[in-house]
Design brief:
The structure holds two protein chains of two kinds.
Chain A lengths: L2 E4 L2 E4 L5 E7 L8 E6 L6 E5 L3 E2 L7 E6 L2 E6 L9 E6 L6 E2 L3 E5 L1
Chain B lengths: L2 E5 L2 E3 L5 E8 L7 E7 L5 E7 L6 E3 L7 E6 L4 E6 L8 E8 L8 E2 L3 E5 L2
Classes of the chains: A mainly beta, B mainly beta.
């Protein structure tokens, strides 16, 4: 399954809402989709699994939604620490694949 | 606190070998599947290999099949990646990652170790 994330770069200001898209080339089995955040020089951090379940310790301003082939990560109000690259990953089909990433940058 | 610490990266010539290690702590290691995921410089993430908690099930990405071998030692709470016949395209930061449900998604990641394949 090929995951296509859009946009490639999102330029927003702190306090604004961010909406990131992840589109799959075929339906993701059981909506097994995860989202990760990666800051420069750091390892990825799990945000969302099962399309909409927040991982331990993740603030509720992060939310995931979607099903089938279309998934969304929303950040309700951007905090300074949220500017990073975000990856989606499907784990419902083999091989597991990641999207190419969306960079959320400060406008 | 869950901790994963990779080691063993470095510079190696094409065709050479390297063994990566990942030392785990802060959780019951023997109960979890583990994975290796890599990231080429400036690029995205690529899953590399999976090993189940008992080592009974192992998977590899097609790009490394036949060249890489994953293993683990539950007594030492460590997972390993033996990399042979290395190519320039294997240059990447290699992360070990815990798999909470054996479904090949990753709830904790190490800080990564850089492997550079170059002459």
């Amino acid at each position: 399954i090929v995951l296509t994330q859009s946009p490639g770069t999102l330029s927003l200001s702190p306090g604004e809402r961010a909406t990131l898209s992840c589109r799959a080339s075929q339906s993701v089995t059981s909506n097994y989709l995860a989202w990760y955040q990666q800051k420069p020089g750091q390892a990825p951090r799990l945000l969302i699994y099962g399309a909409s379940s927040r991982a331990t310790g993740i603030p509720d301003r992060f939310s995931g939604s979607g099903s089938g082939t279309d998934f969304t990560l929303s950040i309700s109000r951007l905090e300074p620490e949220d500017f990073a690259v975000y990856y989606c990953q499907q784990y419902g089909n083999s091989p597991r694949t990641f999207g190419q990433g969306t960079k959320v940058e400060i406008k | 606190e869950v901790q994963l610490v990779e080691s063993g990266g470095g510079l190696v010539q094409p065709g050479g070998s390297l063994r990566l290690s990942c030392a785990a702590s802060g959780f019951t290691f023997s109960s979890y599947s583990m994975n290796w995921v890599r990231q080429a410089p400036g690029k995205g993430l690529e899953w590399v290999s999976y090993i189940s908690s008992s080592s009974s099930t192992i998977y590899y990405a097609d790009s490394v099949k036949g060249r890489f071998t994953i293993s683990r030692d539950n007594a030492l709470t460590s997972v390993y990646l033996q990399m042979n016949s290395l190519r320039a395209e294997d240059t990447a930061v290699y992360y070990c990652a815990r798999d909470p449900r054996g479904q090949l998604w990753f709830d904790y990641w190490g800080q990564g170790t850089l492997v550079t394949v170059s002459s």
